[in-house]
Every structure is written in C-alpha cells, then in structure tokens.
Write a structure and sequence with these properties.
The chain is α/β, with parallel strands linked by helices. Helices cover about 40% and strands about 15% of the residues. 2-phosphoglycolic acid binds next to strand 8.
C-alpha cells in the first residue's frame, strides 16, 4: 500500500509574511500521520520555513545539475539541503517550457539532488496540442524514458503527472484519463526498474483543489497530488491533505 503524498508548490509566490500559512499546514500534517506532506517554497524562504515549522517537510522547486561552479545565479542541491530542504521538484513544465530544460537536464538534476540527500518529485506532462493529437501517452513515455534517474527507487523518487494545460487553468482531465495515464506510467516504470515500480508514488498535478481532490486522489494509481495555487494558504491546502487521509485509509 503506497502512502499518499500531498506536496505544495508555491512557485514564485510568498514572502516571509506568508510563512504564517505554514503553521496551519504543519499542524494538519502532524495530525494526519497517514499522509506525507511537503511544501516547495522559493529558495529564499527555505531556511526561514524550515526554522519556523521544523516538523513540516520543506522542499525546493529546482536545483542545478552541477554540484558547484561558475553558474551565476544558480543554486545547487547541497545548498538547498543545507538551508533545510528535504526534497526538490525537478522537470516542472514551467522549467521545461520556459527555461528549455531537456530530459537529460532533468535526469541530471534528479541525480544531483539524490547525491545531496534530497528526495525528488520528477514532473512530466503533455501540452494541450499533444493531447489533442492523441500523443499524450507517447510524450509522457518519452519524458520518463529520458529523465528517469539512475538508481530510481521509491524511497527517494516520486513521479508527478501534470498535464501542462491543466496547470493553473481550473481544467482537469477526466478521471478515466488520469487513471489511464497513471497506469501507463506505472507499467513503464515496471519495465525500467522492475518490481520497485509497485512502491513508487505517482502524483497527479494540475488545478487540484479541495473540491476535486477526493475524486482525483481516488483514481486508480494516483498516490498523491502536486498542488500549486491551492497550496498558498492553509485554508485551501489542508482540505486536500484531509481528502488524501480519507482515501489513504
Ligand atoms: P496548479 O499548479 O495547482 O496551480 O494548477 C500545479 C503545479 O504546477 O504544480
């Protein structure tokens, strides 16, 4: 039985003042021991967040693929780990699309994060035109084939399926489409890493809210959620954690 994981992604939002929201999220996480909860905050908030709510798992949204060096403005996995992050996202579509990150980059970032002792949520997902062309599963399969890190294992790696057209739009795929994609991802993981794929969590992301969380989290092979907009306040995020708790039993 896979434990549900509900992760928030603050993106380029938040300030020290916003950290007060983490108090309620941390309390909910502590009161929901059957669900793993994490919040990926902007780099500048990792240390103050980790200090404010030591019981809550704080993460980064990206890391550089190199351990150190002449990369002005970039942040390494060891740096975010030292600041208090315990996980990082890699391959979010806003980095794949806006920053031109390739599958090879994403794979190298995941491996760098692992070397720094971080857990990783590896994001994949198709664009609307790709879904409309009937290519959604092929696109996601290609992303996984190219970005799955060496040594991929469920104790440090999760996959997040996030259809790009569902992110921040209020639109979500049908539950049947979500279940089909997650099943396809799991079969591909099994082909790559064998029996360990059964334990690997596959999260759904894209316009998850308190209203649709129970349905999405109840779909076959959905082991959690990656939540953007609805992770910015405790009032919106805590009900999603509660929904995961009910589904997760
Ligand atoms: P959203 O973002 O929940 O605001 O759609 C999800 C994500 O980008 O991870």
């Amino acid at each position: 039985m896979r434990r549900k994981l509900v992760a928030g992604n603050w993106k380029m939002n938040g300030s020290r003042g916003a950290l007060a929201e983490l108090d309620g999220i941390a309390a909910a996480a502590a009161g929901t021991p059957g669900v793993d909860v994490g919040i990926a905050v902007p780099f500048t908030l990792i240390a103050p967040a980790a200090e404010r709510v030591p019981g809550l798992t704080i993460g980064a949204q990206d890391v550089h693929l190199a351990a150190s060096g002449a990369h002005t403005g970039c942040i390494s996995a060891a740096m975010v780990a030292e600041a208090g992050a315990r996980f990082t996202l890699v391959g979010h579509s806003e980095r794949r699309c806006d920053r031109g990150e390739s599958d090879a980059d994403v794979k190298a970032k995941a491996e760098a994060a692992r070397r720094a002792g971080l857990s990783v949520i590896l994001c994949v997902g198709e664009q609307l035109a790709e879904r409309d062309a009937g290519r959604a599963e092929a696109v996601v399969a290609e992303q996984i084939a190219g970005s799955l890190p060496e040594g991929a294992a469920a104790d440090w790696l999760s996959i997040a399926y996030e259809p790009v057209w569902a992110i921040g739009t209020g639109r979500t795929p049908t539950l049947a489409d979500v279940a089909q994609m997650h099943g396809t991802i799991r079969r591909q993981l099994a082909a790559s890493i064998g029996g360990g794929a059964d334990a690997m969590r596959i999260l759904y992301g894209g316009s998850v809210t308190a209203d649709n969380a129970a349905d999405l989290l109840g779909a076959a092979d959905v082991d959690g959620a990656l939540v953007g907009g609805a992770s910015l306040t405790a009032a919106k995020f805590v009900p999603i954690v509660s929904a995961a708790s009910v589904i997760g039993g």
